[in-house]
Amino acid sequence: MKRFFLIVTFLIFSFPLFSYTLDELKALLLQNNPELLKLNQEYEQAKLDLKDAKAGLGPSIDLQVSGTYMLNPPVDAIYLNVDDVLNSIQWGEVLGTSGVRPVSSGQSIKIYDGMENTLYNFQLSLTQPLFTWGKLENAVKLYKQVVEIKQTQIESQLQQKETELEIRLVSLYYLQKIVEILEEEKVFAQRLVETSENAEKSGMLLHQDVVEARIQAKELEIAQQDIAEQIKNQFLELERTCGLEGLTRGNIDYAVDEVELAAIMALNRAEAEERALSGQQLSIKMLSQLKNVNELAEKIARGYVNWKPDLALQASAGYGGSRFPFTEPNWRRKDDYSLNVSLGIKTTIWDGGKKLNDVSRKISEAKVADINQLDARSTIKQTLNKQWNTVDVCTMKIEYQELKLEAADSKIKQKETIFQSGYGSETDVLNAKIDRCNQLIEKERQSLTRSVACLTIKALVE
């Protein structure tokens, strides 16, 4: 029983507790990929810009409140001199000849206490655009288009990252197979060096043959190091792409889907090209959306040209006084208010031609968008043709390598038969086996290149 538990414990710690499938890695990519996360934030910002553009169609309301304490109010108390009042009266007309004119007293009478030290002011203003030559409406349309572009950009980036993810998994699959072949070849190479050194001691081989065997073993060691570095880089990129850490081959549950690759290679190439160049292809779709944005930007620019006035309604209501309303006594007798409604027109008469230049600039940008769309279609067509050519060449090379492997198998049997009969040498058998390993490695390399081309075609056609 104790031995049983030891075996179970060994198996638990010898194998990974969890392996990621392709679909699970795609889900992690969508959740953790830095580029996609940045694009999602840009998408949210674009939606906020759209809300701002829609808000521009409605009124803007501003409220200004101020309270001032004046140590030395600008208006002091006002006094009236009694003598000035008396002198301004025509006493003869008032009292007649028998009347007695009042005697001057030299006194002054306060008729105004002066401004108080406090002053409060409230101002509420409303501005509503009435007519802007379509600038505000087109701005809303433009930002709607920008939101759609960001959404398309996210979809395109996701498709690109998923294709990149699958290509890396395919690369790891074939690189691991190459590692296994190199391990087998390493055994043959070490045995070849050992056999060659023994044969040199017995006089059966020259020292040059021994050196060549050592060179072959060293080349194999370099190839192993190179493959190990490639595998490490693939894992590092996978970790960054999916937001994982400590990813190993044992954590990945993936095998190349040969059926899917065969289906891709069997596609009708004319139909595949038509689908790749259609408006539903994400890169073409994005360029069409950019073209619409440039057209809307041109319309907005035309709305700003000279002698095209904007019309807006502005209303304002104000209140001011030395007493704070509702809190200080006698505030109703100290207040003042205002209510104004105005219709404003604003236009640029002449700005040196800047706005006309801006219209021309937008027209030029629209033409550049057309050129980019044509160039993108040409690039997609060229890329698709290149990948199809890669598929064809790799398929022929794989068939070629299979023939060479068949010949290598026959050669190994021949060398083994001659060696067993006592006429051949073990070094000939080992060289034949090493050559077969090299042919098998080349076949796997061609299979990897063809698989990458197929996945690229799949991404272009979907």
Descriptive report:
Helix content is 65%, strand content 12%. It has helices at 2-14, 22-32, 34-55, 82-87, 91-95, 135-201, 207-242, 258-265, 269-276, 282-302, 354-420, 426-461, and strands spanning 60-69, 78-81, 108-112, 118-131, 310-321, 335-346. α6 (135-201) runs antiparallel to α10 (282-302) and α10 (282-302) runs antiparallel to α11. The longest helix has 67 residues, at 135-201. The chain is of the alpha+beta class. The chain is built from 12 helices and 6 strands. The two termini are 56 Å apart. The strands form 2 sheets. It has a 4-stranded antiparallel sheet, with no helix packed on it. A two-stranded antiparallel ribbon has the order 2-3.
Layout of helices and strands, plus pairs?
Layout (H helix, E strand, L loop, with lengths): L1 H13 L7 H11 L1 H22 L4 E10 L8 E4 H6 L3 H5 L12 E5 L5 E14 L3 H67 L5 H36 L15 H8 L3 H8 L5 H21 L7 E12 L13 E12 L7 H67 L5 H36 L1
Antiparallel strand pairs: 1-4, 2-3, 4-5, 5-6
Jot down its keywords.
two-stranded antiparallel ribbon; disordered N terminus; alpha+beta; 462 residues; four-stranded antiparallel sheet; 65% helix
**What value does the Rg take, in angstroms?**
45 Å
Helix content: 55-70%
- What would you call the shape? elongated
Q: Please tell me the overall pLDDT.
A: 86
Structural class: alpha+beta
| Number of H- or I-type helical stretches | 12
> Describe the biggest sheet?
4 strands, antiparallel
Please list the strands of the largest sheet in the order they lie side by side. 1-4-5-6
SSE topology string: HHHEEHHEEHHHHHEEHH
Strand-residue proportion: 5-15%
Distance between the termini: 56 Å
Low-confidence blocks of residues: 1-16
Count every beta strand, where a strand is a DSSP E run of 2 or more residues: 6
